[in-house]
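Typical record was shown:
=====
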Amino acid sequence: MKTVLKTLRSRHGYTQEALADKLSITRQTLLKYETGEATPSMDIIKQLSNILQVDYTCLIEDRMPEEPEYRIIPETKTLDRHELRISIPQRNIEKFKQVLLYILQKVGAKPNIGETVIYKLLYFIDFDYYELYEEQLMGLKYIKNTYGPTPVDFAKLVAKMEEKGELEKVTTKFFDKDQKKYLPVKSPNLSMLTGRELQHIDRVLERLSDKTATELSELSHKDIPWIGTKMREVIDYEAVFYRTAETSVNPDSKVV
């Protein structure tokens, strides 16, 4: 554990004192974990897993989580609804940027809207739209992580938006946890979104934007696309057509 623990702590910007404080242990105890002089209990390992946002098996096996370099695939033609649907997401980085700015403009000031909540809002916006209309809205790729779907290359795309002065990243506190928030600096270009797309985004925000990260993670864990995917693999859009009534948004769905 010693190698991966120290690396992940540094990557997340924690000092030994800060991380030890979060774990309610002494800095000396944490130092022993990092040097291999002591092995933490399973309870501590699970806490570390949550804080460092990594599967606990990586800590136990002292290995860094895999970080596959997925890329948003170049745009493909939309098939007739009776043809075999394309599972690979379309490239639409500009639309993603406008959707993100729109989300931040509408609900970004809410205290619960941190990075993890944004991940889930993007996921449900994309997957709900695909279930309803058999078309992609943003067409982002999402991988299955411990705490729910994560949009691939989100950090890279947001970093570029920050460089261009389109948004600003800040760190705040939500209850007792550090929270990454994004503030829109630029207004979204709504001409890139259709009326139907905007109405859909508004419905998702109305339904889900008041939920906490934990509540949205739990909801995503009940979704067939997430359930049917192996950890760290890309979630297949096609799985939305097998959703149960609990997460389906299609009023004509016969699945119960």
About this structure: The chain has a mean pLDDT of 83.
